Amino acid sequence: xxxxxxxxxxxxxxxxxxxxxxxxxxxxxxxxxxxxxxxxxxxxxxxxxxxxxxxxxxxxxxxxxxxxxxxxxxxxxxxxxxxxxxxxxx
Length: 90
Fold this sequence. Notes:
By secondary structure, the protein is an all-alpha fold.
């Protein structure tokens, strides 16, 4: 049986409140710290876990933004199509 005593998980409770820009900035800083080395194993694991959570948060922001763009485009195309039909009916 594996023991995980001594390994704490990263605190990610505040990530949901971060804006995209805040999360992206912290993610970049986290990656930089991990890549630079010199961090003990437990801290590296915490940084990795937090980085994963930050990346997921950023991806959610981007996915939601893309969905909104797609929705606006679809509504715009529907409006344009309806306008074209109205003009040809006259």
